[in-house]
Amino acid sequence: MSAEQRVFVTGGASGLGRALAEGYAREGARVLIGDVNAARGEEALAALRALQPEAHYLHCDVTREEDLQAAAQWMQANWGGADLVINNAGVADMGPVEAMPLADWEWMVQINLLGVVRGCKAFIPMLKRQRGGALLNIASMAGLVHPPFAGAYNATKAAVVALSETLKAELEPDGVRVAVACPAFFRTNLGESLRTRDPRYARWMKKLVDESKIDAESVARLIREGVARGEFRILTHPAARRFWLLKRLLPYRLYEAAMRRAGGRGRARSQPADGPRSA
């Protein structure tokens, strides 16, 4: 991207959002980050301005439609529009479906799914008026391949994939591109937002994240490269890509058996002998 490009990132003050923001700023793009954490927002902004002096931060809670509308209005007023809108903000859960309170399901839906919907609704009119630009929605491999003990996370990320496919068909006639990124586990701070009723799931999540061989900066680079190539479904982890291909190409019972074996190995390595339990 060049200095003419204008990028907005939700959840842009930490983790993958910050890595994406810094990657685009390093390429010369003007980047607006939105985040609910003001202290991290200012810290991230200082780092961004060292790369691109026009970077900006706005407080943005993706559960509030008016915050997303304010971001779109700020970009229109100050930069004349947007070229790439990244709906990145997300949270996590782990635990059996029956053990997760409905309040936690609603929290997950409000952020992981409706947060993306609000971002799209706020910016699509602008992108359509421009007859150009792109939406990048950050989902997860959990939106394509659904591991156990992450029901709400799987469901919301699968919904983001479905939403992105819908938007791609709807917006192509207007010259607006849509992409959805589906990374697997990588080293980031996603565990900070984790809600679970059993501390062993938190330890399992931490182990999966900490032992990943890939960090947020590497995932961000792979996503940026996918966007630059015009890919729609951006898969950043080769092993996860193979599982998705297995799911698509094998009879489901064979894929399910392979998934069960992989999940069993992971649980055996990362949990106590008595395994997970509901609270």
UniProtKB/TrEMBL annotation:
The keyword Oxidoreductase applies. Signal peptide: none annotated. SUPFAM superfamilies: NAD(P)-binding Rossmann-fold domains. Pfam families: adh_short. The lineage of its organism: Bacteria, Pseudomonadati, Pseudomonadota, Gammaproteobacteria, Lysobacterales. InterPro entries: NAD(P)-bd_dom_sf, SDR_fam. Gene3D superfamilies: NAD(P)-binding Rossmann-like Domain (3.40.50.720). Belongs to the short-chain dehydrogenases/reductases (SDR) family. It comes from Lysobacter yananisis. CDD domains: SDR_c. This is SDR family oxidoreductase. Keywords: Oxidoreductase. It comes from the Bacteria. The keyword Oxidoreductase applies.
